[in-house]
């Protein structure tokens, strides 16, 4: 080893010992007679001092050439810092190293992105990604990568203790039924054939259950050839698992235990279990969304039955057409949102498809008032106020539309107002389940116009219905609810799973509803259907998004901050400069060889 | 849960308790009045009994429909097996379950590959791969997957305890400098551009060192678009790591510790450390190969200096041309290899490029004798015998050729004879290092004829020379030895690594020797070179082949047996039937969309 200790190791108890450190020059202060250097590595910062009489003059002279990010090896004696000079920010802040030997291990050009602790300004993301090797030196990025490592290790240990087997499933394989666009990989050996990169190990993990592995887990890389977004990468990682001889409740209980462990180990938070479970229908009714943020209230109240009593044309026409009038009551919102604030909210809901934003302020007498008050009798407003539990100073915001339209608008308002009014502690973590999703939804838009209005699977065609929903496969598919469950953290879907169908008869009915005929089923899922015919146990599983888990546990806003080498929006600009994308020029030649 | 216990849980101490098990019907014996079923899951086998009076008659009747691989749930009472009927092979073999309730969870068609313990005949591999879901049920395959999980977990834990960070590097990325053919992935978003699948995370892990991560580890999926072999898959897994501020000795010491731990934990073998280290030159001299099998002797003896004293034309012409005459002495070989045996060895060495096989048998008087004895004086044969430590009954086998030719032939003979004469305990594990590989080799064959005879890097162009070899970069590149080290297990290269160049001047010299001009270097390795200019620490690492490690630790002959879903030679046959390859018909359409 080129060092005896790291830059985070030394303490007062090491006083007087001679040690060797290696690291990067985080910052330096020349004070004429000598030099102070903050030496940095992954483990911490240690002050190293080039001063007479400890440091020979030739080394002091040499030290004057040191610059930011130079890599050095220094040997010297550990001494307490002078009285009052200790730096409590660093674990090694009470000592300093009085240098007797210096070796320059490498120079650095002046860094365009400074990783130094002393620089607090963060450069723009393009520059950071272009010089990712410098960006990754920043302590906040190192914390992100270490957190990611800890979450991954915590997950793996948790499942290993429970007898799960980590099995690697292929990256080069068949297409899987997730529905997004696959990346395709031409094979040179099998001319004209392609592999697909997996969107998830779904089919493989089901086969592992059929193969008797009983409990499978994997931290799996998955791929979707889709556009980038702030929270989406074409290559992502999921904690993927599957169990046999269990039901939906067992999977949720298992994940409850994982959440308790991670929250305790990483954030020192005690999470009570079982985590709350809410049906999809309840989530849509109370929060307008299937991944509600439960860190604050602003629950939706349905006023559809009262709307016809008003003279407000908008409400009446919506309810006449079978639509809904729903509202949220924002405590203190009347003061927080001025006239201009309401205008901004109006613009916002228009972006979500609303025609406008009806509202009431609750005045000091507790009366609902606004420019539309005249359309509502005093009694009607009082009744609405009671239903909404409206208090003086509150703001009532309406959405009148079809059911899903009101969900979209009121969910959007909840989220926006939650953030703007800081209705939650940003460090709080809220975990819950949304369960019993619909089995089927009507396809609304698709490449293929013939598909519109037909049933499609809300999850995938192997999802099992609830036991008491099986009959609805025949009489009313819209009523079918699935053994499906999503883990929600702070309003984000952190993961989700389902129990799979293991009964060939049920599977055949589901395929029928989805318009998948026997030949198509055989073509697309043949090898899984084949396996299902040879003794498939009841089984189910879940996948958690690792990138998102790290983001939420670490309090990061951007998924790229928790991935060492992310793909970027400006990938084409970076293609020849940053890791992550192939140099097209170099590979064109190979592509020709491969007969692409 | 659908069960209270697994099929491996129950013991005599559970006597009298009522339990529920789930599993597969491994075998069944109808004895008229009732049925015995061996119920199997991943954890073991439990005998379940459908007999009066414990089992109601309707359940006995239903049980008669059970067939191999049916999945059932049974409830009943745990009782000791009748006197003398215990099955010591199974941990639950002393008890049986007297069934009171039966639920058929799923049927199975008659399995073309039987996973039953009672069937000892293994079907051919094509059939096994086609029905992998059944093949994977076989206990030996489950042991392979569990061993793989344990080795992986053991590695991860070992490095986590030593402060290594597990960092995920991209699968979709740039081309890396390993030299095999890359798989290419067309990007839909960046039209006309390609990603490459990594042959190793080499460049990324070097960037992580430059980024200050200090100790990186990852169980990494790697890809090479090459033909399949028995020991090679196009998609493989390596334990990949890199450290900063270390030298070659530190990496080897680290891996010594891993080997000790794995051998102890998995095989209960105590491996003494440090593992023996042998230079590349010594390995070639003594064993003719850079991955020698040290479980047995048969060391090569060089007799080039004695050859001219003989009248044997073959030897004389070879030594006249500057070639070598080398031999191995096989203890007891004279008896083991009859005339016909020698003929077979002769055919064998011809396949390795030899023109024939010169040999001596050592007779009872200790005299070297054969059809070529007449060309050698008695004294010369005695001198040879002494050098070879030849004893009565031994067999001496020669190779006369250029240096590398003799290496190839004598290594081949060593390996073949070692196996044929069973010179080692098949359960023995031998670990060692081969170190100090040449930096450069002359390119012998290449697509590009201009490359022939030019220097190429034996590892990759970032490999650092030994400190005392740096000067040879200028005066004699052939003499340059690298800070490179391979871990050898039982004659297989289980992994290898190098210390990387961190000095720009040395890197520039190496590029020069390899004929890589500045522009090419910038083109191919630009983003790494850029990173190296911003304070690169001394660093190096290693990669161990996980598939091969599992194969060697588990005593498997075939790498496909340690991979859940391997690619196969007959992949085209299996393409629409087994997991692992894309259905070409289905994907052609997508390929058109992607403008391939």
TrEMBL record, chains A, B:
<feature type="binding site">
    <location>
        <begin position="224"/>
        <end position="226"/>
    </location>
    <ligand>
        <name>ATP</name>
    </ligand>
</feature>
<dbReference type="InterPro" id="IPR045864">
    <property type="entry name" value="aa-tRNA-synth_II/BPL/LPL"/>
</dbReference>
<dbReference type="InterPro" id="IPR004365">
    <property type="entry name" value="NA-bd_OB_tRNA"/>
</dbReference>
<keyword id="KW-0030">Aminoacyl-tRNA synthetase</keyword>
<feature type="binding site">
    <location>
        <begin position="545"/>
        <end position="548"/>
    </location>
    <ligand>
        <name>ATP</name>
    </ligand>
</feature>
<feature type="binding site">
    <location>
        <position position="500"/>
    </location>
    <ligand>
        <name>L-aspartate</name>
    </ligand>
</feature>
<dbReference type="InterPro" id="IPR047089">
    <property type="entry name" value="Asp-tRNA-ligase_1_N"/>
</dbReference>
<feature type="binding site">
    <location>
        <position position="493"/>
    </location>
    <ligand>
        <name>ATP</name>
    </ligand>
</feature>
<comment type="subunit">
    <text>Homodimer.</text>
</comment>
<feature type="domain" description="Aminoacyl-transfer RNA synthetases class-II family profile">
    <location>
        <begin position="147"/>
        <end position="566"/>
    </location>
</feature>
<feature type="region of interest" description="Aspartate">
    <location>
        <begin position="202"/>
        <end position="205"/>
    </location>
</feature>
<dbReference type="InterPro" id="IPR006195">
    <property type="entry name" value="aa-tRNA-synth_II"/>
</dbReference>
<feature type="binding site">
    <location>
        <position position="459"/>
    </location>
    <ligand>
        <name>L-aspartate</name>
    </ligand>
</feature>
<dbReference type="Pfam" id="PF00152">
    <property type="entry name" value="tRNA-synt_2"/>
</dbReference>
<dbReference type="InterPro" id="IPR047090">
    <property type="entry name" value="AspRS_core"/>
</dbReference>
<dbReference type="InterPro" id="IPR012340">
    <property type="entry name" value="NA-bd_OB-fold"/>
</dbReference>
<dbReference type="InterPro" id="IPR004115">
    <property type="entry name" value="GAD-like_sf"/>
</dbReference>
<protein>
    <recommendedName>
        <fullName>Aspartate--tRNA(Asp/Asn) ligase</fullName>
        <ecNumber>6.1.1.23</ecNumber>
    </recommendedName>
</protein>
<keyword id="KW-0963">Cytoplasm</keyword>
<dbReference type="Pfam" id="PF02938">
    <property type="entry name" value="GAD"/>
</dbReference>
<feature type="binding site">
    <location>
        <position position="233"/>
    </location>
    <ligand>
        <name>ATP</name>
    </ligand>
</feature>
<keyword id="KW-0436">Ligase</keyword>
<dbReference type="GO" id="GO:0005737">
    <property type="term" value="C:cytoplasm"/>
</dbReference>
<dbReference type="Pfam" id="PF01336">
    <property type="entry name" value="tRNA_anti-codon"/>
</dbReference>
<keyword id="KW-0067">ATP-binding</keyword>
<feature type="binding site">
    <location>
        <position position="224"/>
    </location>
    <ligand>
        <name>L-aspartate</name>
    </ligand>
</feature>
<dbReference type="GO" id="GO:0004815">
    <property type="term" value="F:aspartate-tRNA ligase activity"/>
</dbReference>
<comment type="similarity">
    <text>Belongs to the class-II aminoacyl-tRNA synthetase family. Type 1 subfamily.</text>
</comment>
<comment type="function">
    <text>Aspartyl-tRNA synthetase with relaxed tRNA specificity since it is able to aspartylate not only its cognate tRNA(Asp) but also tRNA(Asn). Reaction proceeds in two steps: L-aspartate is first activated by ATP to form Asp-AMP and then transferred to the acceptor end of tRNA(Asp/Asn).</text>
</comment>
<dbReference type="GO" id="GO:0005524">
    <property type="term" value="F:ATP binding"/>
</dbReference>
<feature type="site" description="Important for tRNA non-discrimination">
    <location>
        <position position="84"/>
    </location>
</feature>
<feature type="binding site">
    <location>
        <position position="178"/>
    </location>
    <ligand>
        <name>L-aspartate</name>
    </ligand>
</feature>
<dbReference type="GO" id="GO:0050560">
    <property type="term" value="F:aspartate-tRNA(Asn) ligase activity"/>
</dbReference>
<dbReference type="GO" id="GO:0006422">
    <property type="term" value="P:aspartyl-tRNA aminoacylation"/>
</dbReference>
<keyword id="KW-0648">Protein biosynthesis</keyword>
<dbReference type="InterPro" id="IPR004364">
    <property type="entry name" value="Aa-tRNA-synt_II"/>
</dbReference>
<feature type="site" description="Important for tRNA non-discrimination">
    <location>
        <position position="31"/>
    </location>
</feature>
<dbReference type="InterPro" id="IPR004524">
    <property type="entry name" value="Asp-tRNA-ligase_1"/>
</dbReference>
<dbReference type="GO" id="GO:0003676">
    <property type="term" value="F:nucleic acid binding"/>
</dbReference>
<keyword id="KW-0547">Nucleotide-binding</keyword>
<dbReference type="InterPro" id="IPR002312">
    <property type="entry name" value="Asp/Asn-tRNA-synth_IIb"/>
</dbReference>
<dbReference type="InterPro" id="IPR029351">
    <property type="entry name" value="GAD_dom"/>
</dbReference>
